[in-house]
Amino acid sequence: MTKWKNLRRETGGVSPGKIGGHKKPVLSGANGLAAQPHSLRTIHFAEADAGTG
Hints:
Distance between the termini: 60 Å
Structural class: mainly alpha
Helix content: 25-40%
Number of strands: 0
């Protein structure tokens, strides 16, 4: 038997599986800006308050 036939028999298909995981949004979280309407000005002031900008 070939590798493809063995894979089909073991898994039920030959399509590739998912590689990697999910990436969390950068602006989410308790102090994130995702819940608030924001503009460049509000992001700038939020970064300045956090000391990152």
